[in-house]
Amino acid sequence: MAYCRTMNEPARGIVRTYAEYLEQERASPTKHEFLNGEIFAMAGGTPEHARLCACVGAELGAQLRQVAAAAEG
């Protein structure tokens, strides 16, 4: 009898080696990430996304400086 997973059981990914990941990544126009033997496609970035990340990072940095200054003061 063939194994059939139930609906609440997570799908099992194909486990690959890091060398297999690198070989696939070199040949692929899409960027991926390698985590615990599994390969996941990464979302593409846009200039708007990059700008948003920069703004969020700058704001977080400013907030952390204020907290540090208040703790020292």
Task: Name the features.
73 residues; two-stranded antiparallel ribbon; 2 helices
Structure notes:
This protein is mainly alpha-helical. It is 49% helix and 11% strand. A two-stranded antiparallel sheet has the order 1-2. A hairpin with a 2-residue loop joins β1 (32-35) and β2 (38-41). The longest helix is centred in the C-terminal third of the chain and has 26 residues, at 47-72. It starts with 17 loop residues before the first helix and ends with a helix. The mean pLDDT is 87.
Task: Compile the SSE list and pairings.
Layout: H1 18-27, E1 32-35, E2 38-41, H2 47-72
Antiparallel strand pairs: 1-2
Mind describing the biggest β-sheet? 2 strands, antiparallel
**What low-confidence regions span 5 or more consecutive residues with pLDDT below 50?**
none
Count of separate DSSP helical elements:
2
- Any idea what the radius of gyration is? 21 Å
How would you sum up this structure in a few lines?
With 73 residues, this protein is mainly alpha-helical. The protein has helices spanning 18-27, 47-72, and strands at residues 32-35, 38-41.
